[in-house]
Amino acid sequence: MPSRQNLLIISLLSLFLLYLLISRTSSSSSTTNPHIPSSNDEKRGRPAFKQRLIAVGDLHGDISNAQKVLRMAHIIDDQANWVGGEDILVQTGDIVDRGAGALDIYRMMQKLRGQAEGQGGRVVSVLGNHEVMNAIGDWRYVTQDDIKVFGGTKRRQEALAKDGWLGAEWLANYSITASVPLSPHPLSPKLSFTHGSLRPSFPNLTPYPDAINALGHSLLTKALTPPLNPPYPPNPYSGLPKGHTREEAELYAEGGPLWWRGLAEREEGQVCEWARELKEKLGVRRIIGGHTPNFEHIVSRCNGSVIIIDTGISSAYGGVLSALEIVYTLTPVDDKGKDDGHRQDPFMVDDSLPASDYESEPVESIGAKGELKGRYIEREEVHAIYEKRKKWIALEEREVVL
Ligand SMILES: *[C@@H]1O[C@H](CO)[C@@H](O)[C@H](O)[C@H]1NC(C)=O
Ligand SMILES: *[C@@H]1O[C@H](CO)[C@@H](O)[C@H](O)[C@H]1NC(C)=O
Predict the structure, then answer these.
(1) Phi and psi for 247 in degrees, rounded to 5?
(2) Sheet with strand 286-289: strands edge to edge
(3) Residue 368 falls inside a structural domain
(4) pLDDT tens digit string along 366-390?
(5) Global pTM exceeds 0.85
(6) Has residue 241 been placed in a domain?
(7) pLDDT tens digits along 71-93
(8) How far is residue 93's CA from residue 80's CA, in Å, rounded to a whole number?
(9) Is 397 within the bounds of a domain?
(10) Overall number of domains in the chain
(11) If you take atom 1 of ligand 2, which residue's CA is the nearest one?
(12) Is residue 93 left, alpha or beta, with left meaning phi > 0 and alpha meaning psi from -120 to 50?
């Protein structure tokens, strides 16, 4: 039997060990991100609004890695069903070519789009240069197995045509570029997603994203209206569909949003200047794209203003599995600090703004989260998710009045 004194010593010792354990785990989690300001979440209430967004780059015909990435990001389960709830999934194009699994990925995306909508989530699909190459008959990177999976060249062309299942899906649910708001509030920050790089001097940049997407839709409609261009190879390259306009040709040209690599490849100073110009012209907070792979990691440039998410996910490249994660929250601020900060925030609403602008927002579009009105701490956490680690890219916090 241990004596009373021993019991006392043992309990003090265990308390001390417990303390050590707790202080070590909390300090080790903060030392992994030394440059990130510590959050004082405990001092605040719960967020009134939370939106999670996952973005995934080029998938190039690899259904197995595509599913791994979406599972890793907690967007799908083992049966490839949507478990993302109200999350937003963005895929930045180049699902096709270099592998045999494109058909499966397009089918999966189609299914997820419906399932996501059923749960209050959303799937945003962007076209890559390889989708448009397939549409215009440039099949240089189409594998023989891919043609087989579709049931041969003729069946593949029928699927791609504007009345085929895939052509119709591209025309209805894919666009060249997307501007995605992080909350349903009209003043919400938006993120821009395009397969390649948007060029500040691109002639049809604005009104964004409609000008670019209208051109994309008309070019795609021409390309997918039967008879489709005979595939090259073995036939000679036909180029853009008959009757295309000069503006449509510019959209598909080397300096257009499907092919240009400027934001990924030019030197930092130039890219930051372009990023500033683009953010202002497009009214977005970040410019996110794929197309130019880095096989080790997601690339953040100019402090997260530009993020390139192509990491060669397909086994055709053997890069790293990755997804970009953005967690956006609005947490109400209690009113006692009301008069001590005179910071004029660019996001601040002028009182002269007619209240009806946001009060008319249907309540179900913000779900059970209620109406967004008042003072909030807006927090946007940006991470790269990999198989075994998660890495900070940016964290922005500011006070906003909605
Ligand atoms: C586009 O997506 C919606 C779901 O959001 C789906 O109901 C519709 O069938 C899709 N359109 C085509 C043409 O596939
Ligand atoms: C970079 O972004 C962080 C927030 O993510 C901000 O605190 C910092 O001031 C920015 N740095 C520059 C040089 O803009």
Answers:
(1) -65, -35
(2) 177-181, 190-194, 286-289, 306-308, 299-301
(3) no
(4) 444 458 889 999 999 999 999 999 9
(5) no
(6) yes
(7) 999 999 999 999 999 999 999 99
(8) 19
(9) no
(10) 1
(11) 303
(12) left
Q: Which two tokens stand for residue 376?
A: 């909030």
Residue 104 in domain: yes
Report the SS3 class of residue 157: helix
3-state DSSP assignment of residue 321? coil
- H or E element in which residue 56 lies: strand 49-56
Q: Residue 243's domain is classified under what CATH number?
A: 3.60.21.10
- The response to whether residue 163 sits with its C-beta less than 6 Å from ligand 1 reads no
Range of the domain at 172: 50-329
Q: What local confidence, expressed as pLDDT, does residue 32 receive?
A: 36
Residue 333 tokens read as: 């601020």
Instruction: Please list the rounded mean pLDDT of every run of 10 residues in the chain (402 residues).
Output: 63 60 42 41 75 98 98 98 98 97 98 98 98 98 97 98 98 98 96 98 97 98 97 96 97 98 97 98 98 98 98 96 98 65 40 35 40 93 97 96 92
Q: Which of 287, 289, 285 is nearest to 378 (CA)?
A: 285
Q: Separation of 59 CA from ligand 2 center, angstroms? A: 31
**Tokens 């500033």 found at:** 276
Which of 110, 119, 166, when mutated, tests ligand 1's pocket best, judged by the most ligand atoms within 8 Å of its CB? 110
Q: What pLDDT is stored for residue 277 in this prediction?
A: 98
Alpha helix ranges (H) inside 207-316:
210-224, 246-252, 262-265, 268-282
**SS3 sequence, 76-133?**
ECCCCCECCCCCEEEECCCCCCCCCCHHHHHHHHHHHHHHHHHCCCEEEEECCHHHHH
Q: Which of 38, 302, 303 is the best mutation target for the ligand 2 pocket, counting ligand atoms within 8 Å of the beta carbon and taking the most?
A: 303
Ligand with smallest separation from the Cα of 303: 2
